[in-house]
Predict the structure.
Amino acid sequence: MTDGEASVRAFLTSPAAQVMEAALDIDALLEDAIAIQQIPAPTFSEATRAAYIAQRFSAAGLSDIARDDVENVYGRWPGRRPDAPALLISAHTDTVFPQDADLTIRHDDHEQRIYGPGLGDNSLGVAGLLGLLRLWAAADFRPDGDVWLVANTREEGLGNLDGIRAVWKRLGSRLGAGIVLEGMALGRIYHAGIAVRRLHITCRTGGGHSWTHFGQPSAIHELIAASARMIALSPPRRPRTTYNIGLISGGQSVNSLASHAELYLDLRSEDPTALAALEASIREIVTGAMRPSVAFEVAVVGDRPSGRIPIEHPLVQLAAAALHAAGHKARFETGSTDANALLACGLPAVTVGLTTGGNSHRPDEYINLEPLRSGMWQIALLASIAAQHVAGWGR
Ligand SMILES: [Zn+2]
């Protein structure tokens, strides 16, 4: 038996665990998730959703509720020893959907699913914070150290993990470990963050008329030619290293030589050195495409650090034991979540989920209802036990 399994077993025999299990309320969890999902929260515009969460934190009895200047919402569940290392439990509030997106949800009773943009990623994760507070209130749970519950912003896209980075700046020195909640990651334990770099590449030329000035450079043609060289690159498969041109735009009209074109490139790797080598190749291509009449510019618009804790770390082992106790298999994963920024700062952290689902970042995103109860129970086990043990893990 691992230490994680032993501590889950011990916790399950406690009166607090029995009260918490009886207090599991999946209807309330879903109601919260939908209420949160109905408030638009595109990355950088999370204020309305943040205000709602702050009010819910306050109703749930958290202490020291605060909002910072990037709209992170903080609340503290006090422990017995306020000077002991604290546990951070976070979930991101921002979504990839625009302010005016249709957020209508659809219940599919036959498939046992609920469809809704942003419902799984990550309204359900945020609702998980509230669900946890319900259980802790019912059991009058007093952990060893403080637990900070944080609904943070700027996880998606160009948010660049700036929300959780601000959390680290504010709370880092007090923290002993972190748990990040993602609505649809049930069964997975992210214990390592891949490194991500995002480049915005712009090309400018003199432009002109498609007929009169044919032969003079077009920013679109130049950018496409450089892109063709980029997608001919073969980054290593081990360590896994990838690229993607995710957005491309430019030009004025069909009969103009484009004077301007741009693209966004996403580079990822399990290894920072391999990532740096890939970026260097990209920059070489861009530099090679420059001529007096063709200007390129490369801006770094995203930089997510990498970091990891081993599978043997007590936090990872506890997360696996909590999953097993709730009836799920554990898959250890490398990914790009808020935990990256925490791991990069040396904080032991994992990302775990509440249920399964699909089509994330699409309007037809859905969550599966059947695994929700065991998923929420797994979170309760992990968070409650971690809150008791975090002081012993060291940093
Ligand atoms: Zn997410």
Summary: The mean pLDDT is 96. DSSP finds eleven helices and 19 strands in the chain. The pocket of zinc ion is lined by residues 92, 121-122, 155, 182 (CB under 6 Å). Residues 3-193+306-393 form a domain with the Aminopeptidase fold (CATH 3.40.630.10).
